[in-house]
Amino acid sequence: MAIVALAGSPSANSRSTALLRHVLAAFPDTTPRTEIVLRDLPAAALVRADVDDAAIRQAREQVAAARLVVIATPIYKASYSGLLKTFLDLLPQDALRGKAVLALGTGGSAAHLLALDYALKPVLSALGARHILDTVYAVDAQFTPHPLHGHVAHDEVVQRVARALAEGPLPLRAASPLALAA
Ligand SMILES: Cc1cc2nc3c(=O)[nH]c(=O)nc-3n(C[C@H](O)[C@H](O)[C@H](O)COP(=O)(O)O)c2cc1C
Fold first, then answer.
1. What percent of the chain is modeled with pLDDT above 90?
2. Which residue among 35, 75, 81 has the greatest number of ligand 1 atoms within 8 angstroms of its CB, and so is best to mutate?
3. How far is ligand 1, taken at its centre, from the CA of residue 107, in Å?
4. What is the 3-state secondary structure (H, E, C) of 67-87?
5. pTM for this structure?
6. What are phi and psi of 67, to 5 degrees?
7. Which atom from ligand 1 is nearest to the alpha carbon of 78?
C-alpha cells in the first residue's frame, strides 16, 4: 500500500515539509512512498492548469496509486497555501475517494489553529475523501532548526502525528515511530 506525500510550501527550508518527512520516516522502508514537492512542479503548468504536462501527469498518477495521502502546508493568510490549491485543482473530481488523508499545517501562531479544518477539509471532502485523519497543526516555535533536516518538530508535535496515524490504514514502525536520525 503506497503513500504519497504532498509538500505544499513554497519555501526551500520549510517546517511543514520537515514535518511531512517525519511522517514518511515513520513507515517501514518496505512501504512504497513518493514525496511530491509542489514548488518543484512546473509553475506555468500549475497556473495554467495544464494537466497534459508530463510532470503534472506523473504527480496525478502518483496520487491515484496511493492508499494514504499526507498533505503538508504552511498557513498563509488564514488558509492553506495557494501552491497547494493550484495542485489540488488539477486532480480529478474523485481523486481522494477510497484513500486515507492526513493533513499537516504549520503557522506562525496558534491564531489559525483551525485553518486546516475550516479551509482544507471541505476541499478534501469535495475530492471524495471520506477517511480524513485528525489534522495536526504546529506553530513555528515548536520546531528547532537542524543542520541536516532544516527543522525538527518538538516531541509534542511528533506525538500528535503518531496519534493521528494510529487511525490510518498503514502499519507504523514498531519502535521509535517518527524518530529521525539526529
Ligand atoms: C505570506 C505568508 C502568510 C502567512 N500567513 C500566516 C497566517 O495567516 N497565520 C499564521 O499563523 N502564520 C502565517 N504565516 C507564517 C507561516 O505559516 C509559518 O511560518 C509556517 O510555519 C511556514 O511554513 P513553511 O516553513 O512550511 O513554509 C505566513 C507566512 C507567510 C510567508
1. 86
2. 75
3. 5
4. EEEEEEEECECCECCHHHHHH
5. 0.95
6. -100, -30
7. 8
- On the 0-12 / 13-18 / 19+ scale of CB atoms within 10 A, 80 is buried
Which residue's CA is the nearest one to ligand 1's atom 3? 76
End-to-end CA distance of the chain: 28
Judge: domain 2-166, CATH 1.10.3210.10.
no
Residue with cell 498533505: 71
What are the domain boundaries of the chain? 2-166
Ligand 1 atom nearest to 19, measured from its CA: 26
Summarised one tens digit per residue, pLDDT across range 65-81 is 999 999 999 999 999 99
Q: Determine the Cα–Cα distance for residues 52 and 81; give it in Å rounded to an integer.
A: 23
